[in-house]
């Protein structure tokens, strides 16, 4: 994957997020299913935006810490705030010079339940963009299931990994 197509993947997944925001009502965005112990659509979507924001915030310093997400309640409680934040992220990633994707960085992220501190590893910005896109797709799959229960239909490709879509297309053509 070229760095240009990676930036395109970021924009595509964020635009899919805008599609979610266009498909649900404000009430659906903040609501929780009765009897369910699940996060709202807004909480999942805010979580996705947080990861992209952490990445952008850490590019200049070379220190990306996904544990230091802002967790802004307004992004999970207001579709308009989420839409504005998504559009801002799209614009910021569009303006990101391609050579920034080759930058080395250190990434901190808690993955062990018994660990008291986030583990730090070496990475690069392109790899972290790939992580954020995959992470978004994973949460979009959860959002798609939650939307089906209310019921809101989302496009077939929403929450489906590009490799899975290619596999399904190959199977259909076989």
Task: Write up what this structure looks like.
There is one protein chain. This protein starts with a helix and ends with a helix. The protein is globular and about 45 Å long. By secondary structure, it is mainly alpha-helical. Helix 1 runs antiparallel to helix 5 (79-94). The chain has one domain (3-173): Four Helix Bundle (Hemerythrin (Met), subunit A). The model has no long low-confidence stretch (mean pLDDT 91). The protein has a three-stranded mixed β-sheet with strand order 1-2-3. It is built from seven helices and three strands.
Question: How is the topology of this model organized?
Answer:
Blueprint: H1 3-23, H2 26-30, H3 41-59, E1 63-65, H4 73-77, H5 79-94, E2 104-109, E3 119-124, H6 125-148, H7 162-173
Parallel strand pairs: 1-2
Antiparallel strand pairs: 2-3
Descriptive labels:
7 helices, mainly alpha, 174 residues, single chain, 3-stranded mixed β-sheet, Four Helix Bundle (Hemerythrin (Met), subunit A)
SSE pattern: HHHEHHEEHH
Distance between the termini: 26 Å
**In percent, how much strand structure appears in the residues?**
5-15%
Count, helices: 7
Q: Please state the structural category.
A: mainly alpha
How many domains make up the coordinates?
1
- What CATH calls the topology is Four Helix Bundle (Hemerythrin (Met), subunit A)
Strand order of the largest sheet: 1-2-3
Q: Could you tell me the number of beta strands?
A: 3
Name of the top-level CATH class: Mainly Alpha
Shape field: globular
Q: Which whole number gives the mean pLDDT? A: 91
**CATH architecture label:** Up-down Bundle
Unreliable segments of 5+ consecutive residues:
none
| CATH homologous group name | dinb family like domain
- Computed CA radius of gyration, to the nearest angstrom: 17 Å
Helix content: 55-70%
Biggest pleated-sheet summary = 3 strands, mixed
């Amino acid at each position: 994957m070229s760095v240009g197509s990676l930036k395109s993947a970021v924009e595509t997944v964020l635009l899919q997020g805008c599609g979610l925001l266009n498909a649900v009502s404000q009430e659906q965005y903040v609501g929780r299913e009765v009897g369910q112990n699940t996060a709202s659509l807004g909480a999942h979507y805010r979580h996705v935006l947080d990861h992209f924001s952490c990445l952008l915030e850490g590019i200049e310093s070379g220190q990306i810490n996904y544990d230091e997400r802002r967790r802004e309640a307004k992004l999970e409680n207001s579709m308009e705030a989420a839409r504005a934040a998504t559009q801002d992220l799209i614009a910021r990633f569009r303006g990101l010079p391609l050579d920034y994707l080759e930058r080395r960085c250190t990434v901190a992220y808690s993955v062990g339940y018994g660990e008291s501190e986030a583990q730090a590893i070496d990475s690069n910005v392109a790899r972290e963009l790939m992580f954020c896109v995959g992470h978004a797709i994973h949460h979009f799959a959860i959002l798609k299931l939650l939307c089906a229960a209310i019921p809101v239909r989302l496009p077939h490709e929403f929450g489906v990994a590009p490799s899975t879509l290619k596999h399904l297309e190959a199977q259909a053509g076989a």
